[in-house]
Amino acid sequence: MITDALEGGFTEAPVQSARAFREILEAMARPGTIRRVQGATPPAPLSIAAGVALLVLADPTTRLHLAGEADCPAVRDWVAFHIGAPLAVAEDADFAVGTWEALQPSLRFRIGQPDYPDRSATLIVECDRLVNHGACLTGPGIETATWLNLPETAAFRANRALFPLGFDTLFTAGDRIAGLPRSTRVEAI
Amino acid sequence: MTEHLAAGAYNFAYLDEQTKRMIRRAILKGIAVPGYQVPFASREMPMPYGWGTGGVQVTAACLVPEDRLKVIDQGADDTTNAVSIRRFFQRTAGVAVTEATGQATVIQTRHRIPESALKQGQILVYQVPIPEPLRFLEPRETETRKMHELEEYGLMHVKLYEDIARHGQIATSYAYPVRVEGRYVMDPSPIPKFDNPKLSGNPAIQLFGAGREQRIYALPPWTQAVSLDFDDHPFETSKAPHDCDLCGAKDSYLDEVITDDQGGRMFVCSDTDYCAGRRARGMKGRLWAPEPEGAA
Fold it and tell me: Which of B105, B166, B240, B251 is most buried, judging by how many CB atoms fall within 10 Å of its CB?
């Protein structure tokens, strides 16, 4: 257990986190595009992509919420050693990781303040798979329209209605990652 | 990383990892709320404020070892600011550099958007002196923040209206404000308004960094950025009414160069890569003369 927690982080943090951030940036700037990241092997049930996203973005200055099965001793130990992010309840979290079911109700996460909309949560939603099929996405970062298999559409439509407030979402499955910022309009088809 | 450490004892891309994480979080929030200025804990950089400390920090947070970096200052690749920032990242990140717009993956720019169209996969990083478009109209940060919150942009329209009342036209010719996706009014940095149309619907990611003012903001690809105007005074771009004297381009933004003290002057493309590319393809302007034989 103890040795497990010490492994699975970046071995060359500056370069690996730079490459991973670039993929996350592309994913967030072009909602719906599915990118691949690598470099982390977090303990189950975290996916590689969720582990990479946490290593790149979270640190001791950000509060992290582990939801559902992600809130297990192995993940807690791994986060404590590699990231050092203080664990928090959903309402206070800067980052939250878990399956979409475990993260419900999604409207309890921070959506920012009218004068500081950036003070909002980023959800890292673990999925079984990511494919460009499903809900129709339009908005900034998308030339005409794109598609992504979202777990549901109602919550993301409600989130878009709060714009410029709202949470932002990263979807992860294995080593794949996709982004859905609050600015994206979502339609079920 | 090991070779970077051996070469200069700098972390990859100069900044420490904690700082880069903080900047990266700000960039992602900026992408999520296009045009909104995200506060960030800007660091002191080994160059003075006004030399692109904001742009340098954003570039440092985005660079990967495989990048090919281009740095321009008012369109030119060969001016002091551009050369020193390019060398800075060659030394601290070991990245390849280029002057060709089409070959660059990251372009840091001071006050211009390259003439050649950008494409998907490229990132354009702007150096921003004053990120707040309302700052010269309302000096209090508490008030401008409230104005953005309430979408209260009447003051900016009054300013443009007063331009028309005084000068007969909108006299703002650079740092011309844009409305992003119908929400935030944004300062596009002091680019000439000639470049404003290129902000909107651009396939590249556009990131803006203001080091002294500690703000980062962004335009994701294909984001709409509309230059503010009035129905009876629509937005118009402007440039010197000449062709480039070196390459003959009719469509590029021009710098005026004084050539003597008798009133002599010439107009040349501000984008040096665009101008050199046209000359390499055999296009000649009014004053173009080939290098004399044997010249270095």
Answer: B105
Pairing relationship of beta strands B215-219 and B205-210 according to DSSP bridges: antiparallel
Which tokens hold the place of B208? Answer: 């803006």
pLDDT value at residue B7:
54
Mean pLDDT of B239-255: 94
Intervals of chain A under pLDDT 70: 1-3
**Contact between B191 and B217 (Cβ < 8 Å):** no
What does the alpha-carbon distance between residue B32 and residue B27 come to, in Å, rounded to a whole number?
9
Alpha-carbon span B242 to B189, nearest angstrom = 25
Residue A37 tokens, joined: 């990241």
For residue A189, give how far its alpha carbon lies from the nearest alpha carbon of chain B (Å). Answer: 23
| In contact, B269 and B246? CB cutoff 8 Å | yes
pLDDT band at B295 (very low <50, low <70, confident <90, very high): low
Contact B64 A18 (CB under 8 A): yes
Residues B213-235 as b/e (b if ≥16 CB within 10 A, e otherwise) read bbbbbbbbbbbbbbbbeeeeeeb
Alpha carbon distance B222, A137 (integer Å): 13
Q: How far is A56 from chain B (nearest CA, A)?
A: 6
- Considering CB atoms only, which of A15, A17, A141 is closest to B220? A141
> Residue B8 — very low, low, confident or very high, per pLDDT cuts 50/70/90?
low
**Which positions ≥6 away from B99 have C-beta within 8 Å?**
B70, B77, B78, B272, B273, B276
d(Cα B242, Cα B239) in Å, to the nearest integer? 8
A80 SS3 class: helix
Q: How much is the ipTM here?
A: 0.97
Query: Tokens 């900034």 identify what position?
Result: A140
Is residue A85 a contact partner of residue A63, using CB atoms and an 8 Å limit?
Answer: yes
Torsion sign, CA atoms B27, B29, B32, B34: negative
pLDDT at residue A1 in the model = 47
Q: Which helix (H) or strand (E) holds B267?
A: strand B265-269
Show which residues on chain B lie within 8 Å of chain A, measured between beta carbons.
Answer: 1, 11-13, 17-18, 20-22, 24-34, 36, 38-39, 61-65, 123, 145-146, 148-149, 181, 183-184, 203, 205, 218-224
Neighbour order of strands in the sheet with A35-36: A35-36, A176-180, A168-173, A122-126, A95-99, A64-66
Tokens of B255: 């710098």
pLDDT digits (tens, 9 = 90+) for B111-135: 999 999 999 999 999 999 999 999 9
Q: Which of A22, A120, A164 sits opposite B64 (nearest CB)?
A: A22
